[in-house]
């Protein structure tokens, strides 16, 4: 990726992975739930299971270390285990972890992915409704380690475990995205754009100097493509024209600056390449839905006077 743009995006959209539940079980079992989180991970720590959800015709076979990504789904069902008799209904986070691990064949954990509004707009658009990352693939060599470290914190009950679980949850998501990029054909969007070798030089320019008044010809030249070919390829990969991407990148930077700093609106407008504070405010309101000043007060928890 150009520079380390995925890390840039992670910082801007405040991605956090948080544990929502887990269970360890032996024998036939089934777990059903309503999905209320826009983005959710289901990880198979050990054992095997079948995952079903709305939007797919066939269930997904989860093997040890596999992770499924649910994007905007409304329900899920995970079923596994062997033996006679009807499957036992399992409710995540029920019982003492230390006792539930004894004799368990199947262990499953679930994580929700917290995103700010900009993150939801970016990541949910960049991923398919359901993704399956296989731990057995050569591109997922670090996925198993991230999952094991997360699970060790879940069951270890050590000092600082809540903080560690949040951090490992985020690293697990990063490894899932890395592996998913390599294993699957992504839909058009920013994640696919960041992994496209032909667009890398142009994206580097836009990310490095977002305030420069880039022209399509300059970006195409950096990518060693004609203006027409560059525009067509960029739209196919990113799902939007190059200058629309640049504007959205500027708006992400603006939201971070307004959220985390005390920069003046006029200075921010100039830094991001707008001719005036008014032009910046108009573009910001069109993209975000409110003025820069109102956004700053809202995200900081202040009441406008």
UniProtKB/TrEMBL annotation:
<keyword id="KW-0804">Transcription</keyword>
<dbReference type="InterPro" id="IPR009057">
    <property type="entry name" value="Homeodomain-like_sf"/>
</dbReference>
<dbReference type="InterPro" id="IPR018062">
    <property type="entry name" value="HTH_AraC-typ_CS"/>
</dbReference>
<dbReference type="GO" id="GO:0003700">
    <property type="term" value="F:DNA-binding transcription factor activity"/>
</dbReference>
<dbReference type="GO" id="GO:0043565">
    <property type="term" value="F:sequence-specific DNA binding"/>
</dbReference>
<feature type="domain" description="HTH araC/xylS-type">
    <location>
        <begin position="200"/>
        <end position="298"/>
    </location>
</feature>
<keyword id="KW-0805">Transcription regulation</keyword>
<dbReference type="InterPro" id="IPR050204">
    <property type="entry name" value="AraC_XylS_family_regulators"/>
</dbReference>
<dbReference type="InterPro" id="IPR020449">
    <property type="entry name" value="Tscrpt_reg_AraC-type_HTH"/>
</dbReference>
<dbReference type="Pfam" id="PF12852">
    <property type="entry name" value="Cupin_6"/>
</dbReference>
<protein>
    <submittedName>
        <fullName>AraC family transcriptional regulator</fullName>
    </submittedName>
</protein>
<dbReference type="InterPro" id="IPR018060">
    <property type="entry name" value="HTH_AraC"/>
</dbReference>
<dbReference type="InterPro" id="IPR032783">
    <property type="entry name" value="AraC_lig"/>
</dbReference>
<keyword id="KW-0238">DNA-binding</keyword>
<dbReference type="Pfam" id="PF12833">
    <property type="entry name" value="HTH_18"/>
</dbReference>
